[in-house]
């Protein structure tokens, strides 16, 4: 897999997590621990994307 393809894959996962977080937060009984874990996953993905993008420049 090329770096660009990996960046796209991670970007898709990042967007999916963002949508999952939004849905979770709209529920009246949302689980704050789950939301925090999802946000941490999203941050790790963003860091991976940033690191890979730095390699391509």
From TrEMBL:
Pfam families in the record: DUF465
Segments for region (Disordered): 1-32
Compositionally biased intervals (Basic and acidic residues): 1-26
Stored Gene3D superfamilies: 6.10.280.50
Signal sequence, renumbered to the chain: none
Protein name: DUF465 domain-containing protein
């Amino acid at each position: 897999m090329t770096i660009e393809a990996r960046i796209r894959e991670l970007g898709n996962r990042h967007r999916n997590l963002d949508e999952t977080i939004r849905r979770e937060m709209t529920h009246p009984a949302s689980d704050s621990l789950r939301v925090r874990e999802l946000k941490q996953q999203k941050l790790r993905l963003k860091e991976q994307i940033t690191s890979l993008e730095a390699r391509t420049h």
